[in-house]
């Protein structure tokens, strides 16, 4: 019997993690977590030694986002835990399933400002779905199983398990998880049938519907159900930053991303819609602009697993609380039931209007033959070279928006970025996590020089742990998106956005870290550099791409403005 | 506006902090707070009076806390509310009779008498306590402490049966 086998708390922890199917832990050891690192040597679980705990956290997120499994990070107390705060909040805002194991000072020292003590469950209060402090070694196994249950069910999110050092060393036991007693936790599953019926009635009456699809469709593994429902209802689909690829971009009903830097068609279709059918999206301010001017003529149907999202930003006529995959199945059944033998609704006026917008207001940029290089050009070249067969990870800012605009997404699990929190420094460590989840695929991080310098020490992790990712660093020698706002809204007064003319030399930095470094300065060098990077598979590759610092990201809706005032170019901004 | 919120929570360390910090996150002020055991072992009941324009979003956010089992806003007309107050009234010998007469009308209990003051314990709805204070204010209130408000919803079924 497993439950009488003598073991200590650390062994019970590892056993519980193994039972949960954990294949990799991203972490950094330290004093308080030391006991847990010992049985790790005897465990089949792989450990990836990050250079900084923030990196470990983002690796766990990249792993989780691209695999759908729970990402695990393990760090020590005090600074280990505080360094993990950013990835935890990032995971909370993007609903990424994650379990963080944090060391804690011995129970007798808690609250005494002991060496490397931090009030981790307090820190976790606003950056996790839930947190546990375990004070009895016998509870470790149950708590770990509860943590995984909470992380992966309902609206997924990060969960912290804080383990004092003496608890990790005390006699303990592992037992198979029994039925959990979490009376305050009842995640929704099926939508309320009368609401499903009402939603389909409205959809069938609608002349100008839009399916507004968010990241929850990806979390629920529902792209197939979305495709079936979109095609059956013949309604155009916009996919938010967290849902890119939930409907493939080459599908005739796919309009791309809506919002501040979305496509004209996606943003405007929502504005003109008479029915906004939101599926697991949360009406983020980057999507809505001024909420009072958002989709002014639309009746709103809102499907979400989290009741707190419904009605938060926009009054909702038909709220449906449930799991996106189950609800999409219910909606499809109900659609067929209401139609009987009738065929698909035509909506030729609406779809014709949309086709006209797509033709007249496409995404555009110009790549001068003699340079400077445009980030958009690199992205399109990478798409061609890989035929889209790559896992793409991005940082935050202009390049992120260009990736979302110009990469043709066809699978949302081959895309990771930091959406809600907008965490610069996410791309490189998240790409490491993605590559660990997908060792046989090309994992290409597309990053900015500002972002890259926040976590670039993780190049050493990639090199020494044998994780041959590729990373393009679009070097515009500054904080591009902040600079863009200074250009547009601060009369070109550039305050603290210049990261310096020539230093660092990222290609040489890459070499020093045990990676291959390639530097690209002219448009003609872009494709050969991409081909070269794709040919190298035994080491990480950094392609430093010197890009135009003055390139602006359009379309753009100024923050807080109406989405009707979408600007296609600088001259459109009053 | 002051609104009453009732939460049934796990009786565990840190749960009150999770609840109150969620309210802090919304930048609402907690006007009063009472926590105590319930009829069910392992469950505590938190009664909060919060200064907020509306509580719908906060209520939904509180429901997401794993240790929170139930949350409900109690509207004024459906709530039975009580507070207890200890109040020390400045009392010159000439006023003492009038003060104790008034206190008797409120069924206040005299808990301490000193050379220059009388201390009462008063229990009642927030309105009753406020009226008591109004009447005592002319004599001078030396010190005052109130428990947090506690509240139960009215038994509406019983009302329907008799109405």
Could you please describe the fold and organization of this structure?
The complex is a heterodimer of chains A (574) and B (163). With 574 residues, chain A is of the alpha/beta class. Helix content of chain A is 37%, strand content 15%. Chain A folds into three domains: 2-172, Thiamin diphosphate (ThDP)-binding fold, Pyr/PP domains (Rossmann fold, 3-Layer(aba) Sandwich); 193-360, TPP-binding domain (Rossmann fold, 3-Layer(aba) Sandwich), CATH 3.40.50.1220; 375-554, Rossmann fold, CATH 3.40.50. The mean pLDDT of chain A is 97. Chain B is of the alpha+beta class and 163 residues long. Chain B has two domains: 2-74, Alpha-Beta Plaits (2-Layer Sandwich); 80-151, ACT-like. Chain A, domain 2 (Alpha-Beta Plaits). Chain B is 29% helix and 42% strand. Chain B is built from five helices and nine strands. Chain B has helices at residues 15-25, 56-64, 96-105, 126-136, 156-162; strands at residues 2-10, 29-37, 43-51, 68-74, 79-90, 109-113, 117-124, 141-146, 150-153. The longest helix of chain B has 11 residues, at 15-25. The chains are: A alpha/beta (574), B alpha+beta (163). The A-B interface holds A 121-122, 125-126, 129-130, 133, 150, 182-185, 306-308, 311-312 and B 9-10, 13-14, 17-18, 21, 25, 56-57, 60-61, 63-69.
How would the blueprint of this fold be written?
The complex is a heterodimer of chains A (574) and B (163).
Chain A: E1 7-8, H1 9-19, E2 24-27, H2 34-40, E3 46-49, H3 53-67, E4 71-75, H4 79-83, H5 85-93, E5 98-104, H6 120-123, E6 130-133, H7 140-152, E7 158-164, H8 165-169, E8 171-172, H9 193-205, E9 209-213, H10 216-219, H11 223-233, E10 237-239, H12 264-272, E11 275-279, H13 285-288, E12 299-304, E13 318-321, H14 324-339, H15 348-360, H16 375-386, E14 391-394, H17 398-406, E15 415-416, H18 427-437, E16 443-448, H19 449-455, H20 458-464, E17 470-475, H21 480-489, H22 506-512, E18 516-520, H23 523-535, E19 541-546
Parallel strand pairs in A: 2-3, 2-4, 4-5, 5-7, 6-7, 9-10, 9-11, 11-12, 12-13, 14-15, 14-16, 16-17, 17-19, 18-19
Antiparallel strand pairs in A: 1-8
Helix pairs in contact in A: 1-2, 1-7, 3-5, 3-18, 9-14, 11-14, 16-17, 16-23
Chain B: E1 2-10, H1 15-25, E2 29-37, E3 43-51, H2 56-64, E4 68-74, E5 79-90, H3 96-105, E6 109-113, E7 117-124, H4 126-136, E8 141-146, E9 150-153, H5 156-162
Antiparallel strand pairs in B: 1-3, 1-4, 2-3, 5-7, 5-8, 5-9, 6-7
């Amino acid at each position: 019997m497993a439950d009488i086998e003598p073991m200590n708390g650390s062994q019970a922890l590892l056993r519980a993690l193994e039972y949960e199917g954990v294949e990799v832990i991203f972490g950094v050891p330290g004093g308080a977590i030391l006991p847990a690192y010992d049985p790790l040597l005897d465990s089949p679980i792989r450990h990836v030694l990050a250079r900084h705990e923030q990196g470990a956290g983002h690796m766990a997120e990249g792993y989780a986002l691209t695999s759908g499994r729970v990402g695990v990070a393990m760090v020590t107390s005090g600074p280990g835990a505080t360094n993990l705060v950013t990835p935890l909040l990032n995971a909370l805002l993007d609903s990424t399933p994650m379990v963080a194991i944090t060391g804690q000072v011995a129970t007798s020292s808690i609250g005494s400002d002991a060496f490397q003590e931090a009030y981790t469950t307090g820190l976790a209060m606003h950056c996790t779905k839930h947190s546990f402090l375990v004070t009895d070694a016998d509870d470790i196994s149950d708590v770990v199983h509860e943590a995984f249950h909470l992380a992966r069910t309902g609206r997924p999110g990060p969960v912290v398990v804080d383990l004092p050092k003496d608890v990790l060393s005390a006699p303990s036991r592992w037992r198979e998880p029994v039925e959990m007693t979490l009376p305050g936790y009842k995640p929704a599953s099926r939508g309320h049938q009368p609401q499903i019926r009402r939603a389909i009635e409205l959809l069938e009456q609608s002349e100008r519907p839009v399916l507004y699809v968010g990241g929850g469709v990806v979390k629920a593994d529902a792209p197939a159900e979305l495709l079936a429902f979109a095609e059956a209802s013949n309604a155009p689909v916009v996919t938010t930053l967290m849902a890119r690829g939930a409907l493939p971009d080459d599908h005739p009903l796919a309009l791309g991303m809506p919002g501040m830097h979305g496509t004209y068609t996606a943003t405007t279709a929502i504005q003109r819609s008479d029915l906004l059918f939101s599926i697991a999206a949360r009406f983020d301010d980057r999507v809505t602009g001024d909420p009072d001017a958002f989709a002014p003529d639309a009746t709103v149907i809102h499907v979400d697993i989290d009741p707190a999202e419904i009605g938060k930003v926009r009054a909702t006529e038909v709220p449906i609380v449930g799991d996106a995959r189950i609800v999409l199945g219910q909606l499809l059944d109900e659609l067929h039931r209401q139609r009987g033998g009738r065929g698909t609704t035509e909506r030729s006026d609406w779809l014709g209007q949309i086709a006209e917008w797509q033709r007249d207001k496409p995404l555009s940029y110009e790549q001068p033959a003699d340079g400077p290089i445009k980030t958009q050009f690199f992205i399109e070249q990478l798409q061609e070279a890989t035929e889209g067969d790559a896992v793409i990870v991005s940082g935050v800012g202009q390049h992120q928006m260009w990736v979302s605009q110009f990469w043709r997404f066809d699978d949302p699990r081959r895309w990771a970025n930091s959406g809600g929190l907008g965490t610069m420094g996410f791309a490189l460590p998240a790409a490491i996590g993605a590559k660990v989840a997908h060792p046989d695929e090309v994992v290409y991080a597309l990053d900015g020089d500002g972002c890259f310098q926040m976590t670039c020490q993780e190049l050493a992790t990639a090199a020494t742990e044998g994780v041959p990712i590729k990373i393009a660093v679009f070097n515009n020698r500054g904080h591009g998106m902040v600079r863009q706002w200074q250009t547009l809204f601060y009369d070109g007064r550039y305050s603290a956005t210049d990261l310096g003319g020539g230093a660092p030399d990222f290609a040489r930095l890459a070499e020093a870290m045990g990676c291959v470094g390639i530097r690209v300065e002219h448009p003609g060098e872009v494709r050969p550099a991409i081909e070269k990077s794709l040919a190298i598979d035994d080491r990480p590759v950094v392609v430093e791409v010197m890009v135009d610092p003055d390139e602006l990201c359009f379309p753009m809706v100024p923050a807080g403005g109406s989405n009707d005032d979408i600007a296609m170019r600088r001259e459109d901004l009053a | 506006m002051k609104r009453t919120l009732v939460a049934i929570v796990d009786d565990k360390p840190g749960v009150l902090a999770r609840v109150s910090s969620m309210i802090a996150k919304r930048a609402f002020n907690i006007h009063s707070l009472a926590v105590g055991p319930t009829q069910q072992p392992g469950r505590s009941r938190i009664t909060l009076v919060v200064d907020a324009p509306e509580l719908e979003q906060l209520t939904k956010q509180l429901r997401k806390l794993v240790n929170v089992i139930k949350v409900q806003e109690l509207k004024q007309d459906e709530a039975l509310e009580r507070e207890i107050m200890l109040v020390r009234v400045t009392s010159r010998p000439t006023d003492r009779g009038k003060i104790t007469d008034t206190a008797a009308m409120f069924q206040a209990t005299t808990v301490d008498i000193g050379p220059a003051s009388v201390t009462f314990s008063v229990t009642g709805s927030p309105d009753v306590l406020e009226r008591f204070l109004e009447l005592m204010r002319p004599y001078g209130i030396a010190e005052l402490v109130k428990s947090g408000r506690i509240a139960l919803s009215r038994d509406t079924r019983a009302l329907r049966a008799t109405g």
